[in-house]
Amino acid sequence: MFHSIKTRLTLFYTLIVFLLFIISAGLLYFGLQKLLISQLDHELHLYADVIEDSYNPQNNSFEFLEEGTELSQAIRRDWVRILRTDSTIVFNSDRFAETNIRFPFKKAVQLKLHDSMYREFSTVFGRNYRSIILPVRNDKMKSNFGWVEVAKSTHDLYHPIKALRKLMVLATPFILLVIGLISYFMVQRSFRPLAGISKKINEISSSNLEDRLPVENPHDEIGQIAIQFNDLLQRLDMSFKKQTRLLTDVAHELKTPLAVLRSHWEQEAENELLPVSLRYKLSSDIEEIARLSKMVNDLLLLSQSEHKEPPFKFESVNMGILLNIVVDDMRVLAAEKKQKIVLDSDQPATVSADEHYLRRLFTNLLDNAIKYSPNGSEIKITLRQRDGMAETKIEDNGIGISEEELPFIFDRLYRSNKARSRRQGGNGLGLSICRWIVAAHGGSITVESEPDKGTTFSVFLPLTE
Ligand code: ATP
Ligand code: MG
Questions:
Q1: What number does the ligand 1 atom closest to the CA of 433 have?
Q2: In a domain, 206, yes or no
C-alpha cells in the first residue's frame, strides 16, 4: 500500500497540514490564555494601586477605608486585605476573613518597594483566585509600611479558555478527516493525467503508433513527459513505417525478376538436350525460387495490413463448408506425409468474413500442422460455438513450440529453432498473416503447445446473429 506514490503523498500532506493546524491551535490557545491573564493582572494592579495611593503616612490610615464611603462598602465584599510588616492586620475584607488563606510573608518580605507579585490560590470550596501583592510605601520614611493584597476569581478567566480547549479536542478528529480527504482529492486530481497516459501507453502497439498520449496541461511536469513521449512515438512511428516500406519496396522489386527467372528455368528444366544432372540441379533451384516467390508474395500481402483501408470484402461465410474446402485442398499435402486430417464440424456456425482471406488463414494453420508433425500422425480440426464466437481448433501431435519461443511466433519472419533446423522450413510469415486476418475480422487467435507433444491453435471469430 505504501508503494504507491499517491498514498505516500496523501499521508505526507495530511501530516504536514495537521501539524500546522496543531501548532496554530496551540499558539492560539496559549496566546489567549496569556492575554486574559495579563488583562486580569492589569485590573488587579489598578485596584491595588488605588488602595495603596490612598495611604496617608501622616496618620497611618487609608482614606478610602473611611467608614461611610461608598467605596469602603464595596471593598468589604471584595477580596482585599492590608497587612503591616509586623504581620498585624490593618484591613481584612469579609471574604479573606471567612476563608483562611495564609499570607505569604516570606515571599512578600523579599519584594522591592516598587515591585509587585502575583499568585494563585484556591479556597476549601475549590474556587480558584488570582491575587496581587503590592508593597505599601511610606514615602516619607522611604520604607515599607506593609502590603495590600487584592484577589479576583479566575473562573471567568479560565472559562473561555477551557471551552476553547474542549472545542479543539472535539474538533481535532474531524479536522484530521477533512484534511485527509482534501489531500486525497488533491493528490488524486494531480495524478489523474497519469492514469490516462498509462492507459494509452498500454493500448499503443506497433499497429497504432500514430496514437498520441493525452496532454492535459502542457506546462506541468506530467504534461512535459507526455509531450516527450509523444515525440518518441513520432520518431518510432516514422522509423517503423520506413522499415515496412523498405520491406515492401524490396518485395516489389524482387517479384518480377523472380517470376521471370522461374519461368526461364522451368523451360530449361524441360530441355532434353541438357544433361540430366544439370536439369536435376535446376529443378532444385526452382524449388528455392518458388520459396522466395512465396515469401515475396506473403510480404506484399502483409504490407496491406499497413493500409488504413483493409482489402476485405465481408459476406456471410458458413464455417463448416469453408473448413471442408480447406481440408480437401490440404489432403494432398498431408497424404505426402501419410497424415490423417479429421474434421469435426457438426455445429453450424456462420461468420461475416472475407472468404478468400479466411481460407488463407486456415490453410496457413493447417500447413504448419502438417509441416511440423511427423509422418503418419493425425491432425484434428474442431468447429464449435462458444460465447457468441465460432471457435476453430487445429490440433497436431508435432514438434511443439517451447515456452520461451511462444511469444514470438506471430512476429514477422520468426521461426523457432527446431523449425529452422528442418529442411522443409518456411519463411516465418504465415502466422503474421493469420494474426492480421483474425484481428481484422474482430476475432482472436491463441496457441497452446508442449515441445514434442503437439500444438493447438484456436481461432475465435464473431458469429453473425
Ligand atoms: P511460412 O508459414 O511463412 O511458410 P513458417 O511456417 O515457418 O513459414 P509461421 O507459420 O509464421 O512460419 O510459423 C512461425 C513459427 O512457429 C514456425 O517457424 C514454427 O517454428 C512455429 N510453429 C508454427 N506452427 C507450428 C506447429 N503447428 N507446430 C510447431 N511449431 C509451429
Ligand atoms: Mg507457416
A1: 11
A2: no
Binding-site residues, ligand 1, Cβ < 6 A: 298, 364, 368-369, 372, 396, 398-401, 409, 414-416, 419, 425-432, 455
Residues 236 and 146 in one domain: no
160: CA distance to ligand 1 center in Å?
86
How many domains, in total, are found in the chain? 3
Range of the domain at 124: 5-159
Which among 397, 254, 381 has a CA at the least distance from the CA of 319?
381
Are 213 and 201 in contact by the 8 Å Cβ rule? The answer is: yes
Q: What is the largest CA-CA distance in the chain?
A: 164
Residue 180, domain member (yes or no) = no
Query: How far apart (Å, rounded) are the C-alpha atoms in residues 298 and 430?
Result: 8
The CATH number of whichever domain residue 279 belongs to comes to: 1.10.287.130
User: From residue 355, how far is each of 277, 323, 326, 359, 365 by CA, in Å?
Assistant: 44, 11, 11, 6, 15
The verdict on pTM exceeding 0.85 is no
Helix axes 221-270, 276-303, angle to 10 degrees: 150
Buried b (16+ CB within 10 A) or exposed e, 45-61: bebbeebbebbeeeeee
- For the segment 144-201, what is each residue's pLDDT rounded down to a tens digit? 889 999 999 998 888 888 898 899 999 999 999 999 999 999 999 888 888 888 888 8
Q: What ligand has the least distance to the C-alpha of 301?
A: 1
For residues 393 and 457, the answer to whether their CB atoms sit within 8 Å is yes
The CATH number of residue 401's host domain is 3.30.565.10
Q: What is the pLDDT of residues 275-301, one digit of tens each?
A: 999 999 999 999 999 999 999 999 999
Neighbours of 240 (CB within 10 A): 15
Q: In degrees rounded to 5, what are phi and psi of residue 135?
A: -65, 140
Query: φ, ψ for residue 113 (rounded to 5)?
Result: -60, -35
Residue 33 included in any domain = yes
> Which numbered ligand comes closest to the C-alpha of 369?
1
| Shared-domain flag, residues 332 and 455 | yes
